[in-house]
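Z., the sequence and structure:
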Amino acid sequence: MVVFFDIDGTLVAGGYNKTYVPESAMVALKKLREAGHFLAIATGRSQAMAYDYMCELGFENMVSDGGYGVTINGKLVDITPLDNDKVVAVIESIASALPSISRIALDLSVNESSSYVPTTPSRVK
């Protein structure tokens, strides 16, 4: 099985400037590795900001930079932006598939250069 973990609030606790890795996280990662699972980090952080955590937690593979960066066997192999049109299509598809009762409304604003511009989600009832 392949398992991806976020850093903030998942593997690392404590909030800004008080971060720490709970022992329970280390134990869980050890058990998953011993069971033969492929573990990787998936984070919105830049590769440079996530790299120390990757090493501290014993990971060698990571998707970083919000999906733009790929680190394999401890080496950054690529940082390439996602295809904008495909990203917008996926977001629009998800937004249209969500139930209309008590869902998060995604306001999809696309500027003149067809770049997705995220806006603050609002609660819809």
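The mean pLDDT is 80. The beta strands are 2-5, 38-42, 62-64, 69-72, 75-79, 103-105, 109-110, 116-117, 122-124.

Let me know what you think.
H.
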